[in-house]
Structure formats: C-alpha cells, structure tokens
Amino acid sequence: MQRVLLLALSVITAVAFAGCAPKLKKGECKSSADCASQEGVGKVCVEGRCQECGQDSDCQAGFVCRDNQCAPKPQCGPDTPCPAGQECVAERCVEKKAAVQPEAGAGAAGAAGAEAGAVPAECSDATSFTIRFDFDRYAITSASQQTLQKLADCLKRAPAKAITANGYADERGTAQYNVALSAKRAEAAKKYLGDLGVSGKIQTVGNGEESPLCTESNEACWSQNRRVEFQVSR
Predict the structure, then answer these.
(1) SS3 breakdown of the chain: % helix, strand, coil, rounded to 5?
(2) Under a CB-based contact definition with an 8 Å cutoff, are residues 228 and 130 in contact?
(3) Deepest in the core among 101, 144, 169, 175, taking most CB within 10 A?
C-alpha cells in the first residue's frame, strides 16, 4: 500500500513540476502569442525575442523588414533606377539639384553662400507637412509617407538647426492614454524621417488632446486632431 502511495505521489509531483514552466522575462518568447501579451515590445517572436518583424509580411504596406525592424521600402537601388530628372539618395528618388550659375561679376564664394542660405518656397511653411493618423493608431499611412518624403527632401535641400515633431490625439480616451498615443505618433514620424536619411536630432513631444484644431464631437473633426505637426528652425 505504501508503495502505491509513494508511486502516486511521485507521479503527482512530476506533473506539477512539468506544469510550472519558467516565467518568461520581458521581451522573451516561445511564440508570437507571448509577445502579444506584453507591452512595449514587438509582437513577433523571432529566435526567442519579441521583435517588430521577422519578415516583410509582418510590416504594413510600403515597408520591409530590416534587422527585425520595419523600414520604408526602398524606391531605388542598383537594379531599380529613378525616373528621368531624379536621383537615388538613401534609397529614395529625389529631384536632381539644378546647377546654380553665379551672376556675372559675382564671386564663387558669394554664389555658394546665397545657395546655402536659400530656403525653397515649397519648404518654408512647416504647417504644410502636417500628417494625420487613423483612430487609435500611430502607423504612418500611405498619404503621410508622401508628405514625409517631401519634408525629408526639403530638409536635405535646406538643413534645419532644430526640428520638433508634436504629436496630438482626439478627445476620446483618457488624458494619460492620449498623451502616450500622441507621443508614439511623434516617434513614428521621427523614425520615418530618419529612415529617409534626415540627419540631426529630432525632438518629439506628446501633447495628447491639447490644442485641438476642431472641437466638434464627430469623425470629421476628430480626424483633423489626430496629427503630428512639425516645427523647423533654420
């Protein structure tokens, strides 16, 4: 009888230990389901770590997976030339810079100084580069990708001393949640500009639902408030 009891106790103990799997540390995973339950980490399990992506299909349209992070899909490269009148810079097609001819009698140094200090008219108004987001999302939309590409081109042609990305949210959700969401939107815009080759430090600010552009409680109004605005100092 004692042998039977001891055998039963051994079986119960082995089953209990087998059911108590070691707790995973933050960022560790056995499957993507482990990542989905964790905050502040990627949602795809790659070799035991939670990453943003493991392959291109894990990224949204227009992005590819590089070093387990989603980056804008290259527009050009050795095997993918740009259209006529454009050149490939940091895997993006940008307009070729027209050669500036110095005026008669003007020194080369003076012409170079005038070119360096000039800000193209299409680049002078930072409010024209405001981007907007879907509800409760901070992913860069296809329309916003085009706007950020134009901003990146301008910043390369007329570099800035300081850039600030101000994120905003609509009125729905708690104040704390909206501040965090707006900060993520600003960080997403910063990352996208960095991937486009914009050098220099970009500061980000999460303003939550403060400073709304529209105060009506409807989608047409809320969509205007879900945005990132840029401040550019030259």
Answers:
(1) 35, 20, 45
(2) yes
(3) 169
